[in-house]
Amino acid sequence: GAVVSQHPSWVICKSGTSVKIECRSLDFQATTMFWYRQFPKQSLMLMATSNEGSKATYEQGVEKDKFLINHASLTLSTLTVTSAHPEDSSFYICSARVVGARTGELFFGEGSRLTVL
Amino acid sequence: GDSVTQMEGPVTLSEEAFLTINCTYTATGYPSLFWYVQYPGEGLQLLLKATKADDKGSNKGFEATYRKETTSFHLEKGSVQVSDSAVYFCALSDARDDKIIFGKGTRLHILP
């Protein structure tokens, strides 16, 4: 199946710094990528939908100035957590839809665990 | 809004036992329903899906039937294996906005 890779898989940063997480589709093009946040023992919460070449669409309650999303190419979307604070510590997961695929045929990255000290 | 509720885990079974993980949903439209699986250290993978009422999705010995009358999509397997140990997520997607909503996940442990 299609492969989605996230980098880094694990990052620790100091409070107040910014962290960038990359999501790459390795063997397919993805016009749409999704960013999720997962808390321990909780569901995946959709944060935003990232469309190549246009602004991301954020879910209600997600601060777009804090979670900057860029989808500059058909194989790369980035999530930047700006001025990170301990409450931003979480597991961030991206997924991508193959161009032309039907609803639900998403491929997921392995996730990136962010710890803010 | 739309939501998915699945049984709390962890679920621990012996190898070759019968598995059921319950999932119910709330949706205003006619969603597609999915089960995703996350094996240790890996990303989520689509396990099976059903797009309309009475459809049965199946894969790797797992089955789930889209029950509109009970708004359910329970996951079943007749004989589980140690390799089935993973976290299972029930999810729905409403065609109106193409978003996927996940349940909280159920961790499954299979003992040899």
Task: Give a concise summary.
Chain A is an all-beta fold and 117 residues long. Chain A contains no helices and eleven strands.
How would you describe what is shown here?
The complex is a heterodimer of chains A (117) and B (112). Chain A is mostly beta strands and 117 residues long. In chain A, 0% of the residues lie in helices and 52% in strands. Chain A has no helices and 11 strands. Chain A has strands at 4-7, 10-13, 19-25, 32-38, 44-51, 57-58, 67-73, 76-81, 90-97, 106-108, 112-116. In chain A, the strands form 2 sheets. In chain A, strands 2, 4, 5, 6, 9, 10 and 11 form a 7-stranded mixed beta sheet that branches. In chain A, strands 1-3-8-7 form a 4-stranded antiparallel beta sheet, with no helix packed on it. In chain A, a hairpin with a 5-residue loop joins strand 4 (32-38) and strand 5 (44-51). In chain B, the strands form 3 sheets. In chain B, strands 2, 5, 6, 10, 11 and 12 form a 6-stranded mixed beta sheet that branches. Chain B has a 4-stranded antiparallel beta sheet with strand order 3-9-8-7, with no helix packed on it. In chain B, 36% of the residues are buried. The N and C termini of chain B lie far apart (41 Å). Helix content of chain B is 0%, strand content 51%. The mean pLDDT of chain B is 92. With 112 residues, chain B is mainly beta. Chain B is globular. Chain A binds chain B through residues 1, 4, 34, 36, 41-44, 46, 49, 93, 95, 103-111, and chain B through 4, 32, 34, 36, 41-46, 49, 89, 91, 93, 95, 98-105.
